[in-house]
Structures are given as C-alpha cells and as structure tokens.
Write a structure and sequence with these properties.
The protein has four helices and four strands. With 111 residues, it is an alpha+beta fold. A two-stranded antiparallel ribbon has the order 1-2. A two-stranded antiparallel ribbon has the order 3-4. The longest helix has 14 residues. The radius of gyration is 17 Å and the shape is globular.
Length: 111
Amino acid sequence: GGQTIDATMRRILRDFPQYAPRAVSRPGGPHGEGAPWVMSLSNFVSDEEAEAFIAGCSSHFSRSLAGDELSPVRTSSQCWCSNNACERSPLTQAVAHRIANLTMVPHERYF
C-alpha cells in the first residue's frame, strides 16, 4: 500500500527544502483536528515550464463541467494535459516527474 496523506506531507516538509514547503493548514494545527493538509511550495514550477503548460493547452481548453454537465455558475475553462502537445512537452514531463517524486504517486495516475 501507499503512504498516508499525513506521511506524505511530513515527508515533503522534511525532504524537499529546495521548495521551501510550508504547511498552511494541517490536522491538529490552528484550524483544528479536522483541518485538511494545505501545502505551499516555492519554485516548484519554473516560468518556462508554466509557459509550456499554457502553450501545450492553448487550443485544447474547454468549458469546465459541474459533474458531467454544464452549469451556469461554473464558468471556468480547463485543459487536461493528456493526449495533446501539453503531455508531449519535455518541460511538462519534467513537472510530472517532479510531482511523482514529491507525492510518490505515478504520474500516470493524475497527468
């Protein structure tokens, strides 16, 4: 089995100082026992990598759904970085591998 969220978040705080990890919220912290983990990372994605995501998705944005249907209150657009130029970019692949290393979740599960 995989690690628990708590173990993963503690590992990020401990083992990745290059990203200056900061727990904005954590269970048992100032927000209470039921508070979720919310982590802030710095310098995790470079400007060049961010541009690769934007360029790779530029012609693949579609209206976000609420569940499986359009909603008048959800007006955002999204792009899945899969089966398109976004997924094929070496820069976005580098970010995917970085996320996998950080979370210990294979990038095929979320990318």
